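Convert to structure. Protein one:
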Amino acid sequence: MAKADWLKATPASGSGDANVNVSANTHTGRVMRTTVLTWKAANVADVPRTVHQAGKPEYVDIDDAASADKDGKVVTISGVSNSQKLTFKLGTGNLQITLPSKYTANSMQTTNGANISGDPGAVAEYPFSITITVPANESTSALSRQIIVTDGAGHQDVCVLTSAAGDAYITIAEGDIELDYLGTPVTIAVESNTNWTVE
């Protein structure tokens, strides 16, 4: 049985007394992997040795930040994990958004908080992404909201989603303001998203 590609033996051959360094590529899956390393020589029975490589502790890593312009847009936030399931929720902030019920994990649509089909994180880390619709920002201040993702072991990572400030505006109905001779008050509607004065 040939050794797995992830295992390295250096040197791979030699003569007489020698030291062989056994190493491996980084393992990003949660579950331990195993292969067999076999020493061979002419007229000698093969000497197999089982090699185990520990799995990487469960983890989740998401983009630190994402942004939308003032007109709003659809934003995709990405990350990597080796967890069997991921759960997304909104954290603190004043940006009014709704999380979708599904996200993409290892190219498959997955329900938020449900086990990922085939458990790809058992053997290697996988990419994931969640797509969020950010509405236009009508205020003159930037808005933001935390997107929190939690893996199956309870580890969390946070992305801060920011919407750029909208343009300031003030709108008054067209036309002249007409007062009667008594100066009876006339109501003028002001529409604005910023501080204003009348002088």
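Protein two, convert as well:
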Amino acid sequence: MLNLDQIEQAAQHLFQVRKTKIPGTLIPEACRPTDRESAIAVQQRVMELMGLPIGGGATDGWKCGVPKPNGPLVFASIPASAISRTSPYSVPAPKGAASRAKIEPEIAFVVAQDLPPRATPYNDDEIRGAIGQAHMVLELLGTRYADASAASPIDLLADSYNNVGLLIGPVIPNVFNLPLDVLPVRITSPTQTLYDKTSPHPSGHPMKSFSWLVHFLNQRGLGLKAGQIVTTGSYAGVVETPLSVPITVELGGAGVIVAELVAEAA
């Protein structure tokens, strides 16, 4: 486990990369996390440096998924500055990179009532009752590391596990009447089909991801706040899409998002 000075050094490294909007090196070895707890501490300290105290209601979104045995911990805070309901949506595009963005089509839940930390776990009815609307969303993916291939799952966890943004699409009416365990996904541009496949939810069901997050935060003395949005995992894995052209994302009976992703200004 990193000590407080190392956590601060690692967080400052990632924070500076976020400020410059230019991918940088991995966290220096002297303060590079090698365990989940250290990585989460770094991630949360980065949010604090951005002016978003964790647990104080200023973190406006979360990404999560039920961890698989021996698999990575996919968990991150999403700041308000990275959440949008409008298109075009700007995404990081390093110089020299191909004109592509990485997206994941997902279902997200908006919290309707606070779920503060408490000594006893929340039950299923309480968790379900805390959900207000459900939305179809696109998670926008990227990393603050210039050499993403060299980043371990712990490195990614420290860096918000590839999250660079969230585009909120339409409300999904009667969401729990849909077969959310498996949904067809079709993603097209004006000139090609980018993805067309029926796939299972990575956690088995979006509610399993949401429930996992509630329990995970509660165990850490944290909670969810009304108004926060929780995105729960991709039905299509990662899909690369072109920049500066409209794309249409259809998620079974859950809805359709038509959006244009553009390169973020330096």
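The CA atoms of residues 87 and 259 lie 6 Å apart. The two ends are 35 Å apart (CA to CA).
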